[in-house]
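Journal club side-thread
Mid-discussion, someone asked how the predicted structure for our own chain would compare to the paper's figures. Pasting it here so we can look after the session.
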Amino acid sequence: MSTKYKATTTEEAFFITITTVGWVDVFTRLNQKYVIINALQHCQTNKGLEIYAYCIMSSHIHLLCKATNAFILSDVIRDFKKFTSKKIIQTIIDEPESRREWMLDYFEKACAHLKREQHYKIWQDGYHAEIVESNWFIKQKLNYIHNNPVKDKIVLLAEDYFFSSARNYARLDNDLEVVLLDIF
């Protein structure tokens, strides 16, 4: 597998996008968004994940982050995807979901071609990772991440979207702590 868009180094920051298979809108329900929040918090506490910015959209997640304490970001993301895949499926099964049958069928068919035994596939293979190389890049990606919900007309102001670090930068309550960057 190509490492062109993988975070295989340590101590370097990356802009990462992780996308669901078929761009399925999994994260339209609060319970699924909290699967992601809780998993990110676990990675922060136990896997050296340092998050500078994030946004959970309906079918994908953006992160500006790095791995610390000798952890490798690609390993952290692999473990995050593996854990959240199982948790997302369990949440679809256990909690109210009007699209339950359709989603389970879709995610089951998404892994039919795989050689390894797998019952459901939530995430697209790999993820898109770009190494952070300049303050200009950081500013551009922070703006992009925070304005995703504005662009999609979910909110008028970036800081009004609860599942984004735009709230952290606006000094508003948020369930996920981030390391604020002072580059403005």
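Post-session note: The chain has a mean pLDDT of 92.
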